[in-house]
Protein 1
Amino acid sequence: MTTLQEARMTRRRRRLFARWWPRAAASMEDRGLGSHRARLLADVEGRILEVGCGDGANFPYYPNAVTALIAVEPEAQLRDLALERAEALGMQAAVLDGQAEQLPVESDSFDAVVSTLVLCSVEDQDRALAEMHRVLKPGGRLWCLEHVASGNRLIHLGERAFDAVFWSHVFGGCHTGRETGAAIGRAGFDTEGLAPRRFPDLPFPLSVSPHLIGTARKAL
Ligand SMILES: C[S@@+](CC[C@H](N)C(=O)[O-])C[C@H]1O[C@@H](n2cnc3c(N)ncnc32)[C@H](O)[C@@H]1O
């Protein structure tokens, strides 16, 4: 398959995913996802860029200290839902069409970039993180809630195989086996503020349970 065909396929999968994601996400919010969002975003402040905002599930959790919210979302259907949500909450938000790999905003212009459940799905994680780093002001932070690869080598191998034959195709380009913490470090962020968490915290291993939650800082 050529690169162009692959890109088309990824977009088709993402469009299909956009149709059912809002309902699936709504059912997860009350089962712990909403509390993780609330805890993560309680202290975010200033001018915010949210990447891959989906239907705006994070919007209710932004505190008053947020002075401007600009969101980027490639799927038109999700952009409309995000705008509806912002309106219902009485929030001023701009929701732009765009991709994490080429953010349509100026360099060094945001106090915070928010990415929740997005770095598993972007087409090129290194490029997306380089862009997030570019648009942050020096000292600004990337606020993350991302599911990541298992630390167990065998499970990780299984995740990569599962992604290739099934998961990515069904879940809009999502990958369960991405080593996102290492990629964030490679992009030049200080990752000390990122902590591993299990969610959902079940007694048996689930490929999407290991998460990284917290902030990564761009150097001053
Ligand atoms: C699992 S949903 C998460 C949505 C939202 N961030 C949340 O926490 O509910 C993944 C989102 O990433 C978006 N996405 C996928 N690839 C992207 C890319 N290359 N650039 C920006 N967003 C992307 C999808 O359209 C979708 O909205």
Protein 2
Amino acid sequence: MLQCTAYTGVPEIDTLVALTTMHGGPDNPPHALTPDHFLLCELAQHDEHTEHAAQLWTAEIPAVRDLWLFWTGTSKAETYRFAELPPCPAAYHPKSVTHGQACVLYEQHPGGHSWEVTDPLGDLLEERARQEVERLRDADDQDCTD
Ligand SMILES: [Zn+2]
Ligand SMILES: [Zn+2]
């Protein structure tokens, strides 16, 4: 299934407050704030009644909850809230019982687990980056032969 394509601007002041007051949050909240100021919804595509969700902070201690930003509506009339939620307990073990991939979403999230969600934009950017690296490497090789 595809990833939801919604994104939102980070409500900076409120996010700083939430990071500062959360249990087990970052030592330096301003540094923890995502630098690009936009967050993508990390859920699988969903209907308009389901809130979009983006993780703001991953707790370093597994027992501690992660901080999530939930929002609904469009940029003109957006409402958002913060929630500290435990991680989704699901894990995907395609080959081995001990080595699995944990779902990066929160407990009782809607839609598929993170490993079931594909992100065409992310994949596209990754492919672009890979091609760029190859192009630079080829350019380097040519420099050497000159
Ligand atoms: Zn969404
Ligand atoms: Zn999950």
Protein 3
Amino acid sequence: MALELDEDYGLGTRAVRAGQQRTGEGEQSEPIFTTSSFVFPSAAAAAARFSGAEPGNIYSRFTNPTVQTFERRLAALEGAERCVGTASGMAAILAVCMATLKHGDHVVCAHGVFGNTAVLFTQQLARFGVECSFVPLTDLAAWRGALRPNTRMLFVETPANPLGAIADIAGLAEIAHGAGCLLVVDNTVCTACLQQPLKHGADMVVVSATKYIDGQGRCVGGAVLGSEALVGKDVLGVMRTAGMSMSPFNAWVFLKGLETLHVRMRAHSTSALELAQWLREQSAIKAVYYAGFPDHPQRALYECQQEGGGGLVAFELRGGREDAWRFIDAVRLISITANLGDAKTTITHPATTTHGRLTPQARIDAGISDGLVRIAVGLEDARDLCKDLQRGFAAL
Ligand SMILES: Cc1ncc(COP(=O)(O)O)c(C=O)c1O
């Protein structure tokens, strides 16, 4: 039997223990089941599994014990009935869309979601007859105003990457449910350790496990979380047929990542706040954005939804793209890469990387200016990161 730990157990205990199902070998660490298929004791047993009359594994595109252990553990952290692991964060979003949308449906999405998510809605899903409107993340009246009779989904990332604006999850859930829609929240930036959107009324959570859940920049993966009916039936149905499955090896890496996630998210948040406050003192900077600033304009919302600011800090340089690139090229310790959630701090220029495929107008709407630089603060000493960023300021 898998170890079920309800919310009477602390988050740390669930992160380390939940979902484990020891084999007869008595292993301490969870095994990796590197097998594509599973063997049945008889033809009749095979038929019973395939027909669904008997539960159990058939083929690793459908289910795999290592992936299931990861799914149970993440579900225990998010407070979800069910979790389905996917090949990437984008596969998680696509699986949700394929499971819930059809030709003629309409989605309302926040400006400034991850660039590929916006492209998925505006280009790929548009080819299948799904329309999408974009609204400012924090403007509930705009969300309400964008609803149409055929709206089926509200999609949001909070806090926004990279500007740290915070969406009112409960407010959006009320709007969605009043209109018979689903609210889907991308929880990649906070993870379940800092925020649990389902508790505030979201219907489904998607996450890129590639980021903080891995925590060391090794594997690509994702997950969808929600009710048994939506996720265990509809999303799993799409995932196992379309084949956006998580590999057992990646699931094992993510499972190990979950064991330290609560400690790491606290450390990312502490360093990010220290760095963001230091950046505010630098004269070359026009503005610093961090969801965890004590004077953040949405602090009340933060306190009701989040237990930490996370690791993303962004700042705007006065000199536009030229200054931003010069600044980035001058750092020596921090890695120039668009990934986030790594123990190693990363730096990127959103306008030409993560949000580079958006139209210029969509970038303006999302607040992604040419002078914006994003740092995903890792686990190095904040003092050393400041020293490295000094090289950037010296180069301007
Ligand atoms: C907020 C957010 N959601 C989803 C994704 C997509 O995840 P993946 O790269 O694992 O497909 C990313 C990737 O950067 C992201 O930042």
